[in-house]
Every structure is written in structure tokens, then in C-alpha cells.
Amino acid sequence: MYSYKGASKIDEDDEERVRRWAANGSLEQSEVLASYEGRQHLSLLREDICSLLPWHWVTSNIIQWMCSTFNDSESLRYKEDFYCIPPGILETVLQKRNLASFREDPTVSYVGLGPHFGDDSMFFDKIAASMQKWWFALVCIDHHWWLYAFEIAQKRLWVLDSMNTGVPNNERVKLHAYAGRLIEDMAKVSMPAYEHTENGLPRFYASVP
Prior knowledge:
By secondary structure, the chain is an alpha/beta fold. 35% of the residues lie in helices and 17% in strands. The protein is globular, with a radius of gyration of 19 Å.
């Protein structure tokens, strides 16, 4: 998990030993094994690494690490095509109490983003986000992950959910509508000229196994 300048390259046996040590469930689970360069708030504990083992729930720290990796990548595909929204942003707002008070008729009413959202690029880089074609927003609720893919120019929201079979129930429809409102609020912060859709983002459900 650590690298040093001038250190010799480790072989496959060494890599396997490091993997076994990092994912050893009998060792201290709260031990910090990796820190993300330039993002002091982001680190991986042993429990995060262990969550990558088969039949485990992947932690938000792993997802946030991957989002940062994609956003910081030098690959033109990542820089020009999509921006990953860290999972904690939507999850913090999409609470059951907020969902219960969410209304679209007769007038839209909901708990939104904080007044200073977008001021801190550590969590949401509004400049970088404004230059992408797609935004990907991962959400985990009740131990289940799914992805919102926001197609900015077309103002469409794609829902990629492996547990979606047929027509979603009323609570899930309400949740997706709420998420769409928040994502459009993010778009307005990132792109001041962005015009909100009149009746909320139209949603499309991708078929994902």
C-alpha cells in the first residue's frame, strides 16, 4: 500500500503478501493503510480494503476513492466525458425525513443543498464538473448501491440499478425525483446559465444485470 522513491519493484509474491496483510480480517480494522495524495480527508482503513472481499458490502470510502481517482485522472476520456460526484453529497440529503417532506405538487418543496455548496472544491469541483458531458452520482441506501448518470446537454437522468425490475415502487420513484432535483441544483451551481427542467428531470432506466 506504500511506495518509496527509488524502491525496487516488488514481485508477484510480495504483492500477494501485501494483499493478504491488507485484507486480514483478524488485524486492526481501523488501521489506516493508504492516504490519498492531495486529499487529506480521504484515507482507506483495513475495514475498507476488507470490504472488497467476496460477499462483503463495499464501503463509501472505497467508492469515494475511486471517484477521486477518475476525476484526477490524466486520461482525456475521463477529463472530457464524465465527472464523478462523491457519494456522501446525495446520501447526506436523501434521508428518510427529507424524503417524507419532498413534494412536487402543487408546488415544489424539498430540503436542498447547503447555501455554501460548491465553495469547497475538495468535495465538488464546480469548474471541473461544468466541462463534462456526463455526471455520475453513486448512492447507497439500505446497503444497496446504484448509479445516477446525468446527461447534461439532453437534461436526462439515467438510473442504473441492478435490483430494478419492472416499474419502481412509489417510494423509489419519489427518491429518484428528489435526486434529480438535487442534481439540477448542482448543475445550477456549476453552470449558472443552466435552466431547470419544468417538471423535473425525465428518468430512464437502463437494463443492468
